[in-house]
Amino acid sequence: MKLISALLCCFGIFLSRAFAEEHSEECEFILIANTSTQQFSSPNYPLNYGNHLNCVWIIQAENPNDKVEMIFTTIDTEPCCDFIRIRDGESSASPLLMPISGNSTRTNYFASTNNALHVSFSSDDSITGAGFFVQYRIAPVQGPENCGGNLTATTSLQDVTSPRWPLSYKENNFCLWTITAPEGHLILITFTSYTLETCCDSVVLRDGSDDNSRTIAYLRGRNGGFETYRSTGNSLQIRFRSDGSENFPGFWAFYSSVSPSNTTDNGTVVEPINPECEAELEAPTSGHANFSSPGYPKKHPNDLHCVWIIRAAEGERVRIWFSYIKLEKCCDWIKIRDGESFDSEKLAVISGNPHVFHAYVSTSNTIRVEFDSDETVTSTGFFAYYETYNPTAELETSTCGGKLTATATPQLFSSPNFPNGTYSSGTVCTWTIKSQFGTRVRLNILAIILSSFDTLTVYNGDSKIPSRVVSFTNKHRYKYRITLAGRTAIVQLLSRRSFGHAGFRASYHAIDVKAEEETGAEEAIPK
Fold this sequence. Notes:
about 525 residues, mainly beta, Jelly Rolls, 5-stranded mixed beta sheet, 1 helix, elongated
């Protein structure tokens, strides 16, 4: 009996070793990387891999000065117990870059610091999954000559990268690629990975071959998953821009030509950005106009890239100022540029929930305003005014109180230093506004940016004891129109304990008491 047990035990050990040797033999590979993209996968992919696997792939470049890069496009393993391990070198003792397990539809990118990467995969005796799929090649080191160009899309996948990918791109790049497919075909482009400076570097896709083509996508920040876009014609532009500050790896994308009836792909086709985000606005020669983030005063959508070009008459200048801003501080941005081009000089980059707003004036007749939101938190957005700026014109009343005369022509007044500074703590400013007999005073409150300790109050002032109409505190996202009962309005700003807030801006004018009720359209308000 003992002899039989011993024989069975030895036979079991033999089978176990034979099983391990069999799987070890079929799971050990040495792969030679070259400049073309190649691939490998877990055994049986995309069907489930087996149990008790112990697989190794060594990816090498023949030239010791080359580096290897690879991307996992699919990962589906048992989270607890089946692991992929990537090492920076050719042996199991090389430095571990990362262990991976579980289910991920996001792309995972790795690059060696020498000429080899070591990938191992082990599975236990229980649950299995589809495994993984990998693309690899020699990491290109591109120079300035690879920054842009004309590319021809075919039915075969080709790739395009930012300069020096996967190393960091350089400062002050502007690269333009134009991709053209045969007539009657569309272009499908998939970004497998991109890492860009969130505030200031970007990749813009345009649905055509010229600068006026519609924007399909605006990429910034970081994404390790597939993003696929499709043109509506046979050409597409990629515009990559970096500023003079931080540098990142950039992007890696694949493109191909497809027929309109065959545009399915493994990634998600992202819809073009909100077309309401792009507009050309004419600055009024008198008064001002306004625009806002999409959805204002409700929350704006995610993944926006909005552009407004504001143009005054030739020889004039444009002024823009904000009455309300509330954005995700880390990741949503307003950029104001002195000109109409995307690379015009920046006048400002604004984010968060500022208490002080500034007026921005162009040096020519055009200002460009860009608004970018990412894929996470959204906020109320912003509300802005724009106007033709005349530095020789009479400035608005911006003193601490005073006596003002309302006429049929709207005039402006504001708290001290608005919008380029703050009112002082302890400020008490009172404005008395009178109109002629037979008229009433109307106020338009355009911006209110106050501390929670401070108030802006409007009174009817015709009686000996003024009666309060309304009081405001904090910041407000709306404009307010107030029609007084008589010909005298009293406006008072009371600062009890301010911490540096912008204040308010308003207009006033006289209306005929016999005039019919208005439909709600706002009168032109001067600069």
